[in-house]
Amino acid sequence: MSLDNRPHYSGGCQCGAVRFHVDGKLGAASVCHCRMCQKAFGNFYAPLVSVHRDSRLVWTRGEPKRFRSSNFGLRGFCGDCGTPLTYEAPDGVALAIAAFDEPEEIAPTMQWGLEGKLPYVDSIHGLEGYSTEEDPDAADFVNDIVSFQHPDHDTETWPPEERT
Length: 164
Fold this sequence. Notes:
The protein contains 2 helices and 10 strands, in the order E-E-E-H-E-E-E-E-E-E-E-H. It is mainly β. Belongs to the Gfa family. InterPro entries: CENP-V/GFA (IPR006913), Mss4-like_sf (IPR011057).
């Protein structure tokens, strides 16, 4: 919580070049299945949460590049790593839920764009699933991974040192 007892949220892109803070409440959280959102996120749908009109969104490191996806909408993304960050329209700004440092706190409550919903989305939860560590053929690969992803918290500088 911030000093004035308003909620405070932080997040950013995968590489850390763009970071944001929201001071105040978030609005509605949803997923959009429309084809434009699918393309913008490179995914089955776009999970988004609006920034409440009485809240303040501040870009604390860098700022998204923007693509005008329609006559009404802008799509914000990191120009370095490509992480989708925003949907900006005349009625406000929505942020990508997974870009938040604690996305588990932001559960969608509605769906939009059902006309574009892919026919298999509702059955994905029933697919057989495994944790990363459960794949014995990938164990050596997984154990050797060194992540260059920005951590899920604010950092004074990023990256911490040159990478090879």
